[in-house]
């Protein structure tokens, strides 16, 4: 036994250092392993979660801006971490590319190995079939003349026919010897399904990448009676792919003829809840084609040359006319409002930058069905326009639209403006019903509520990879099902002549991995072999069975 002193004198074991090439080879093997691919797939799913927790800038930049204003402490940090641009962030793209590389590096060698296995013969016959999980022996007795009913070679050939009918790929060995055998193998579809699943995942990743590179997504708000032409300047917001080409925009045009919303009027518990949204549209697919009338509904988009038009929102657009202090019309037309509740209580901002001598601005709310409580406060009671009313405050001064700084049409910066109307001022607030006109204080002009229209919010998307994503997703599901329901099995049958002159057929089965159906498969093979020689008695596995 070595002493402590001897152990202290033993040299330390030094591991060999890997060269840069060996290190790269090790990293590549780790990256392209199936375990790493599954971990990256799980990581990609987890990385997608923030995309549903936080508003995304490509889908709704206005909501992101409002979130940053409402959360001045955490918002900027979340923005630095790209939580508002999750699916185009650096870290999400890195996981995406690593998963793609891992899948490719995993599938290629496995495909090569699978093709080699398809071309190779079944494994050699084990020496002792009795050691296999499922095994048995069948004995074919002599005929009436006292001679063997079958010789070993003939029996093995007939057994190979039985295995082929059961779907096995077979090979007969040592047919001219005293102990011929046949080996069979089936279940290659399991590995094929596995490879199909992982290859289809690569296809899904490529399809999503193609959609992100060459597709686009835009939003457009259209008021009844107005139209839209599919061009960059026509969008309210537009998010192109990294390789998007404006020349590829489909040259279609849309016009919103009418928009109707049906509300529940029959059940007390859900009274006033929307039931159906229907937009009557006039669509012209190209300048050369005639215009056609069509209907746009929620979850029923209009398809135009690969571009889909979705109905994602709606609201009211009061029609107003503003005259400035000189009596000229400085603004006239519908102004979309932003609904805030189920009664369509909506905020509204109206700007008249052409008014003279000073620009005019209005901010307030619109009520489709206005009611007034005991304190004199107005509120909305129903989403249908039974008693529409505009409640506004007015301002004059510099709206800041000529400074080159982008301004939201739904917000009014009152920093450099002077208020004319408001509940706390002597002039009070502006309250207008359809057809009414209000004269602004100090001769600043007037505002008229001429009528009411509806508007729709459209989401227009073009994704050239969506068909590929659908096809590859279906193939991935097919491959997964195939790999789960298929079992990889091997069977061997060996024929020998016993000492009494009878023919003995010994068989054994082996599965690759767990296979609860291996017992029933053994019984099926035993039954098929027995019926081949008209055997009427059936013995349990592991026993000899005499056949005539």
Structure notes:
This protein is an alpha+beta fold and 548 residues long. Helix content is 29%, strand content 31%. The chain is built from 11 helices and 25 strands. It has helices at residues 4-9, 20-31, 34-47, 49-53, 61-70, 74-80, 90-119, 152-165, 188-214, 466-485, 518-532, and strands spanning 134-140, 169-173, 181-186, 216-223, 227-229, 237-240, 253-263, 274-284, 292-297, 302-304, 307-323, 329-334, 338-339, 346-352, 359-367, 370-372, 378-380, 389-397, 417-419, 430-432, 437-439, 446-462, 489-497, 503-511, 544-547. The two termini are 69 Å apart. Mean pLDDT is 86; it is low at 535-540 and 542-548.
| Main sheet summary | 7 strands, antiparallel
Structural class: alpha+beta
What is the mean predicted local confidence, pLDDT? Answer: 86
Shape: elongated
**Beta-strand percentage range:** 25-35%
How far apart lie the N and C ends? Answer: 69 Å
As a whole number of angstroms, the C-alpha radius of gyration is: 39 Å
Level of helix content?
A: 25-40%
Number of helices: 11
**Which regions have little confidence, pLDDT < 50, spanning 5+ residues?**
535-540, 542-548
Number of beta-strand segments: 25
SSE layout:
Blueprint: H1 4-9, H2 20-31, H3 34-47, H4 49-53, H5 61-70, H6 74-80, H7 90-119, E1 134-140, H8 152-165, E2 169-173, E3 181-186, H9 188-214, E4 216-223, E5 227-229, E6 237-240, E7 253-263, E8 274-284, E9 292-297, E10 302-304, E11 307-323, E12 329-334, E13 338-339, E14 346-352, E15 359-367, E16 370-372, E17 378-380, E18 389-397, E19 417-419, E20 430-432, E21 437-439, E22 446-462, H10 466-485, E23 489-497, E24 503-511, H11 518-532, E25 544-547
Parallel strand pairs: 1-25
Antiparallel strand pairs: 1-24, 2-3, 3-23, 4-6, 4-22, 5-7, 7-8, 8-9, 10-11, 11-12, 11-22, 13-14, 14-15, 15-18, 16-17, 18-19, 18-20, 21-22, 23-24
